[in-house]
Design goal:
By secondary structure, this protein is α/β, with parallel strands linked by helices. The chain is 46% helix and 12% strand.
């Protein structure tokens, strides 16, 4: 009988863009596309700017209670603040400020960025979900 060496499988790290979190939290018809990531916090890299964008939008459009729930849910993942090195990395792309920081965060942590925003399409390390 052959002896097998056990190999650890490294889970894929994921970063959900704000648009994906909004779909998931609002339970839209597209929510199921992002549920696997949102419901596996051990795989999530969560840029602090994403928490800001999502909670601000939900607070403004729905309620403070829903925004607080969203924040708690997102904070189950690994929350990443932005600092000078991350800011420097974000400068190297042509994306708007928040998107630059989100993308740089995903890249710095070898996470795949899931997004519905077309300006990310074709960038390395991005899984783009086009809106129909």
């Amino acid at each position: 009988m052959a002896t097998r060496t056990k190999t650890a499988i490294t889970p894929v790290l994921l970063t959900l863009d704000s648009s994906c979190w909004i779909e998931y939290l609002r339970d839209t018809p597209r929510a199921e596309l992002f549920a696997i990531a949102a419901e596996n916090p051990e795989q999530l890299i969560v840029p602090v700017v994403t928490i800001y964008e999502v909670t601000k939008k939900l607070r403004r459009e729905i309620s403070a209670k829903v925004a607080a729930y969203a924040e708690a849910l997102m904070c189950r993942g690994r929350v990443i603040d932005f600092d000078l090195p991350l800011s420097r990395a974000a400068i190297t792309n042509t994306l708007p400020l928040a998107d630059s920081l989100i993308y740089a965060t995903a890249q710095a942590h070898d996470a795949i960025l899931w997004t519905q925003d077309q300006h990310f399409e074709g960038l390395p390390g991005v899984k783009y979900f086009p809106k129909d």
